[in-house]
Write a structure and sequence with these properties.
Blueprint (H helix, E strand, L loop, with lengths): L1 E4 L3 E4 L4 E4 L4 H11 L3 E2 L8 E6 L2 E7 L14 E8 L12 E3 L2 E2 L5 H8 L7 E2 L11 E5 L4
Parallel strand pairs: 1-8
Antiparallel strand pairs: 1-2, 2-3, 4-5, 5-6, 6-7, 7-11, 8-9, 10-11
């Protein structure tokens, strides 16, 4: 089970640990390695990014860009986590739960999930385009800016 914690990050399944916003590249790589085969892949607007897969859920993470105009530029840190289903929305629930506040976002029809969550989603959470029928296929959790 992936557990989304807005403002903090994502608890990874199988005891792989917490993927926390603000981690630097090496620490993120070590955390993802506990989940399985993590690969570096290019991602738009990210200095570094990686993907990993756990059963039927793909995880894509990305860093922020280096602020070269800052007085002391820092290493880019983890800022974005995207979880997506490997199967189409019409194929039923995902095998691997993706949970927010006890609600399996990929385990119930999108209309039910949206009814329960309501309009006020946590800051940094984006649920993709809900299908007319079927299940959500992508969820993005971003670090709060500030």
């Amino acid at each position: 089970m992936f557990e989304l914690i807005p403002g903090t990050g994502v608890v990874l399944p199988a005891g792989a640990g917490l993927l926390r916003f603000g981690l630097e590249d090496r620490a993120t790589g070590r955390t993802l390695a506990a989940l399985g085969d993590a690969r570096a892949v290019p991602m738009l607007d990210a200095t570094w990014s990686r993907t990993a897969r756990h059963h039927d859920v793909e995880l894509a993470i990305g860093s922020d860009e280096v602020d070269w105009d800052a007085l002391e530029p820092t290493d880019p840190l983890l800022r974005s986590i995207v979880l997506s289903r490997a199967r189409p929305a019409s194929c039923g629930p995902a095998v691997t739960p993706v949970v927010l506040d006890g609600i399996d976002l990929f385990g119930h029809p999108a209309t039910e999930v949206l009814d329960v969550l309501g309009r006020d989603l946590p800051v940094g959470l984006w649920l993709g385009s809900p299908p007319r029928r079927g299940y959500l296929t992508v969820v993005r959790l971003a670090a709060a800016h500030g």
